[in-house]
Amino acid sequence: MYKVSIEPHWRIAFGKNPAMDTALLLRLLTVIHAEGAILQAAKIIGLSYRHAWGLLREAEEIFGAPLLQKHRGRGATLTRLGTTLLWADRRINARLSPTLESLSSELERELARSISDSATPVRLYASYGFAVAALMERINAIELPVELRYLNSMESLAALSQKECELAGFHVPSGAFETETVQLFMQYLCPKQHQLIHLAHLKQGLLVAPGNPKKIRGLRDIAKPEVRFVNRQTGSGTRRTLELLLKEHHIPHHAINGFETSEFTHAAVAAYIASDMADAGFGVETAARHFGLDFVPLTKERYFFAVCKNAWKEAPLGDVLNIIQSEDFKRHVNQLGGYDANDAGQVLSFSEAFGAASTA
Fold this sequence. Notes:
Elements: E1 11-12, E2 20-21, H1 23-35, H2 38-44, H3 49-63, E3 68-71, E4 75-78, H4 80-115, E5 122-126, H5 130-141, E6 146-150, H6 153-161, E7 167-173, H7 178-185, E8 194-208, E9 229-232, H8 237-248, E10 262-263, H9 266-274, E11 280-284, H10 285-290, E12 294-308, H11 317-325, H12 327-334, E13 339-340, E14 347-348, H13 350-354
Parallel strand pairs: 5-6, 5-7, 9-10, 9-11
Antiparallel strand pairs: 1-2, 3-4, 7-12, 8-11, 8-12, 8-13, 8-14
């Protein structure tokens, strides 16, 4: 099975200087940041000390400012410019990863179909999340024929109802907003035709800068004029949950500085805050942990895959379910932080999952 990997790649130039490919420079800066020494960093990525310094000098000529600050007897640290470059790269990766993963998956299937009559893939359309990404890692490791496309919850369920995919991933808030959300999704689901596979419980809340310098303790604090906010994109389930919470607390959107500033993933929101471009955002705890942020829990959600009834009993869909039910997968997701995957792989009816909410 062909495996395709598409990664972000950027160049930078100033004035008449030739554009510089940043890939090697960013690798070098990343390791210097971790190791605190140029010589050690150069060895780790396979460069000579001279080559490493030449790369740094070339970049500094383009920017007209230093990337490193050397300390006598204490190695080197990145300047604000150097740190800005690293965080810019992390934001680019966080923002583009879902799109590039989807494109990679589509290309893999096209290559396979153009060369031989390969097995018909399972089409997995899902709202992006860390647990789904972990599942895809295991699917790819054993080369199961699965075609991935990241869409929001509503789009994924609409695709399932049109038989454009076999698995549709979506998340539902627990508690006060569950019935309203489930009813919204039921326009694409039929209890007689579909079943649900439980993936995980997860925590949603406010992602805030390390140490929480703006003292953000709850929703009302993000409406303070000095707090810069970054949101999820319109149409995402996470943004809808936030809007329901704001409505419940009578907080108008226009009171929030940056409400219309949006990112496509939880990771991108976290990277935006970690880059000091915002003070807070709304997303999953896992993203906060991944980027070294603080987290203020506000609500819980459940993540499911919708599937046609009994389709999971046969391969390759059954093989995907076996991965979800495996103790190794559950353990890995639990270690992500903010997830509880102990019930992963349970096959449920709508009444078992949502009770009266599915028939209200």
